[in-house]
Every structure is written in structure tokens, then in C-alpha cells.
Amino acid sequence: MSPTPQRTDPLTLEVVDLIATVVARYHEEYEEAAANHQLTGAQARVLALLSREPLPMRHIAQQLKCEPSNITGIVDRLEARGLAERRPDPADRRIKLAAATDEGHETAARLRGALHFARAPLAGLSEAERTSLRDLLKRMLT
Amino acid sequence: MSPTPQRTDPLTLEVVDLIATVVARYHEEYEEAAANHQLTGAQARVLALLSREPLPMRHIAQQLKCEPSNITGIVDRLEARGLAERRPDPADRRIKLAAATDEGHETAARLRGALHFARAPLAGLSEAERTSLRDLLKRMLT
DNA sequence: CCTTGATGTTTGAGGTTGTCAAGTAACCGG
DNA sequence: CCGGTTACTTGACAACCTCAAACATCAAGG
Predict the structure, then answer these.
(1) Does the N-terminal or the C-terminal CB of chain A have fewer CB atoms within 10 Å?
(2) How far from chain centre, in Å, is Cα A137?
């Protein structure tokens, strides 16, 4: 479908494999941390967004790359648990702003802490190594 | 919950953020590649496993870290599409070996190709950089 | 003002993924 | 051959996700 040259040398394949492993482990730990707080992965992701600032439903859907109607259900469940609430947008009555409640903010903060712990493998690297890793990842992300 | 020292310096947080971005992008592209072949992410992951070798249902569940009963449905759908089939294990009649059909192997191969393309950002790195990245990732994964 | 079109959210149907508990079939050790 | 374990499937249920349709609201033009 494309004449783009692709790297298939052993080194690249090895790096691709390592990245796949990192991705898999990251996901496991994220889901586990969410489950420890009685949340699903999707609920945890939405709550993390809302803990930064209230957002219109549509914006949440864009961030999560899914349909807005999907967000309705997720926020419903967060609301039923008292972790989020819907507020009117003073400037546009069509919009509903989803916002974290006090309890939601607390839960989000605990989750963030758990994630830092989950990401602890970085602790095995020296500062110079972390700098190097940062620069390489930055370049990879163009 | 734990006295483990946690790194919260700006550099570590930056790396954590970059990894989160890599994870998110990797996932998007994987789901997109799967969708291009009329597969869900879970189906693509199972098919990728089966394209390497036939596996007992239980082993698939262990690799995917889910319940075996979940695999039943996924293999059912792959089988309905003619991409996989169930074979008896000659040594143990309790076991059903899920295996990719010819068409399944072809689909898996096309998927792999699409993924290599999706992972192309690595192409922006020199060989020395890829080596460095490989070693850092290896160390991160202990 | 009022109509027309676009936007934001929700609802309902339907499919996939996931869990758990129960059931069936087959292996294995005593 | 019996009892316990193992492998898979089934059924019930919840969450996630998409799509199409409905509804309210906004915004612009006649």
C-alpha cells in the first residue's frame, strides 16, 4: 500500500518488541491500580481528565477518541458513585460540564500516586540514563 | 501503603509522561490496524498468537491475562470468519488447540506488516540511538 | 421574528469483551 | 475403579463501544 521503506533489521525488531512489552506492562498496572479503587480503566481515565478541570462531554470523547454517547454511560457510573457530577455551562445551555466532586478529586489523587509507584521501574535508571531516555522518546515522537 | 522511595523529580515525571504518550499512540495504531482488517483489538492479539503456533485455549488466556471462558468467545468469532480453527490435541483429549487457518496466517501477516509501518517512528533514530534505546528499555524492564 | 442548519447530549439497539459460577469431559494417582 | 484435578464450555450479568435517531439549544439570514 506504500513504498515507504520499513526497517526490519533485528535491532529495530528488538526495540519494537521491547516497546510492546512496556505497553503491555503499563496497561496491566494501570488496570490494576484502577481496580484497586473499584474503577474500570475507562472510568479511571475519565476521572483523571476531570480532576484537572471540568470538561464538556464532547471534549472527553475527543480525548478518549470515542463517541460522545459512550461518555454518557461512563460519567453516569462515576456520578452514581459520587465521584463526578454534571454542571450546566453558563454560556451555552446545550453543554453539560462533567466535573470531579471532592471525593472524585481525592480518588484521582490516590490513583495518581499508585501510578507513580507502578511506574517505579524508572527508579532503576540513573539521572543521565533518564535524560537519555527522555531525549530518545522525544525524538521518536517526532 | 509502602515506604518505597518514589521519584517525583521533574525529569522522571517528564519521562513518565512520554511513556504514557508512546503507550497511547501505540494502542491507537494497533486498534486502527486491526480495524482495517475487520478485527477488534482482542481478536488481532489472539490471531497474532495463533499465527506463531497452535495453542491450547488455556494458554491463550494466560498470555492475554484473562479468564479462559473469555477466549472461547473470541476464538468462536475468529472461527466463524474462517481465520482460526479448533483441533484436538492428540496427547490429551481435554485440550482443544486453537490454530490459525491459511487465511488466518495471511491476515496475521498483513497485520504484522501494517504494524511495522505504524511503528515507523523508530526510523527517525540512528542505529546507535536504537541500540541505546534498546538497552535503556531493557534495563527499565529489569 | 422565524426558519434553517449546525451543535451537544442522551437514548436505545446491538455487538464485543470481560468476570464468575456451574457443568461436562477427560486425565491421573492410589 | 474412584476421587480429585484439569480443560473447556455455557449462561448470566456488567461494562464498553458504535451507530442512528431524538431532543434541545444556538447562531445566522431572510
Answers:
(1) C
(2) 18
Chain center to CA of A15: 23
For residue A34, the Cα-to-chain-centroid distance in whole angstroms is 11
Please write down the long-range contacts of B27-32, taking CB distance under 8 Å and 24 or more positions apart: B27/A23, B27/A27, B28/A65, B29/B115, B29/B118, B29/B119, B30/B115, B30/B118, B32/B118
Residue B55, helix vs strand vs coil: strand
Predicted confidence pLDDT, tens digits, chain A (142 residues): 444 455 678 888 888 889 888 899 999 999 999 999 999 999 999 999 999 999 999 999 999 999 999 999 999 999 999 999 999 999 999 999 999 999 999 999 999 988 877 677 777 888 899 999 999 999 888 7
Q: Which candidate in A36, A65, A116, A122 is best for mutational testing of the B interface (most B CBs within 10 A)?
A: A122
Nearest to A25 by CA among B5, B69, B22, B118: B22
Cell triple for B135: 538497552
Rounded to whole angstroms, the Cα distance separating A80 from A66 reads: 21
Q: Are the C-beta atoms of residues A136 and B136 closer than 8 Å to each other?
A: yes
Cβ neighbours of B138 in A, within 8 Å: 18
- Asked if the Cβ–Cβ distance from B15 to A137 is below 8 Å, we say yes
